[in-house]
Amino acid sequence: MLNLGPVFVFVLAETEGLASPSVLGSTALPFNPIRLVLLIAWIYLGMYCVQRIQVGALVSAPYRVPVCLVALVTGPTMLLVLAVIEAVKKSRQSRRSFFDVLGEQLRHVLAGIQSMARRAREDEEALHLLDSSGRPMDEIYGHSQAGEHQDAKILDRTEAIVADALDRRASDILIDPKDTSTYTVRLRIDGVLRPTEELNAETCRAIVNSIKAVSGMDIAERRRPQDGAFMARRGEATYSFRVASAGALNGEKLSIRILNKDAGTTTLDTLGVSAKQQAVIDKHMHKPSGMILICGPTGSGKTTTMYAMLNAIDRFERNVITVEDPIEAVLPETSQIEINRRAEITFAKTLRSILRQDPDVICIGEIRDEETAEIALRASQTGHLVLATLHCDSNATALVRLLDLGVSSLLLASGLSMVMSQRLLRCLCENCKQPATLSDSQIAQLRKKRINHAEIFEAGQCKQCERTGYFGRTAICDVLVIDEQVKAEIAQGQSFLARLKAEGTKQGQSNLRKQAMKRVLGGVTSFKELKRVVG
Fold first, then answer.
1. Which end of the chain is more exposed for a tag (fewer CB within 10 A), N or C?
2. pLDDT tens digit string along 270-319?
3. Residue 305, class by beta-carbon neighbours within 10 Å (0-12 exposed, 13-18 middle, 19+ buried)?
């Protein structure tokens, strides 16, 4: 019978010779590194042998515990002894060659090692859903119950949908009832919805219930709108999600927003803001007071831009406090407060309280009512720099909306220092973009403006961009500085409002179009994308 113990001792003896001072030099280590590596490998193999003995048929159940204890000490020697014994038995029973049977068993061992390594990689890449407190779905459902019933398959299907959305860089997951028997799953990627699959109603209702359960929502309530949140963990990365449900025709609709976990590390340069506009923004960000308003429609990247501005601030020297709904990314050296309507923590109440916390910079996730707008503007007049977002189309409509909320024109004129509206343009895929096919009239117009039409590209198709021709997005901005002349016009009230509604929005669209045209001429995006976003 083979015994690897003496061989192992011989190898250690040889390694001692290799590790002598004559070989390693004058610097002596307090331990022999080669011996340490071999010892770790021996322990690992011993633990692997124990696992094989536990799950395999080499040893009958009554004798597994003592054999496992011996295997921990003897390492692979015990497994090899057992494999030889088993090979002899099978050789006699099947009348096959002993070496053929032994080779087959060794191939099974190698396949087992590869399977373990593959499962370890899969476990590392697997996505696990957690509730907002960090509890896994197994605890919410109950592990045994999930194993006995269909819940385990539903949870796997739910995790697969979320994992697919993360892999494809989606910002939203929409689950909608198509009819009484079918639901559709769509992903919003780079601002455009893409259908991914259709599921039968029974399966999809179970998926919706699993998401509602992990989000802390009432599963039994299918008609009234509900809000919730959950997390997901994949390896070392953690992702956050915001969920909204609503009763719809033929079933229940679910919308899942994937919060941008990289927002806390973005800069204005990576967003695509031009150098000239960055200089204007940076000047106002370093002022001790004033209000900077970021506006745009839903999904235009307002919060990400606000985080990028905060990243330009030295947060060690300035006390930064944010009020958000929800907190999308963690900012180091920043006090972040999340809105909770159930606990009556609103924007207005939180703003009143943080003014007593000696803030230098106040960041407001969104201005939604008159009270929040008034407190924010008054704070900007009393030595605080205030950053806020507002849902509207342009800089002009932002001013109109604040005045319509009931904010006095004098307060608005004295508190506001800069307004910025933005949009997101899809970038052409660098792997498949191709020279644009232009008409003769378009080429003539470009030549008249001394623009080389050969530098204008259009979308192609490739696997990297899922045959859409676009990959990633860039921001275009329209910056309005509230100087003394604009302040005087705002203070005029109604006469200024009328002119804003007539001219301001048109001028804002023109500025955005100019920024978009620069991206087209730079080969970043296409004419088609410009028309889709700006018009």
1. N
2. 999 999 999 999 999 999 999 999 999 988 999 999 999 999 898 889 99
3. buried
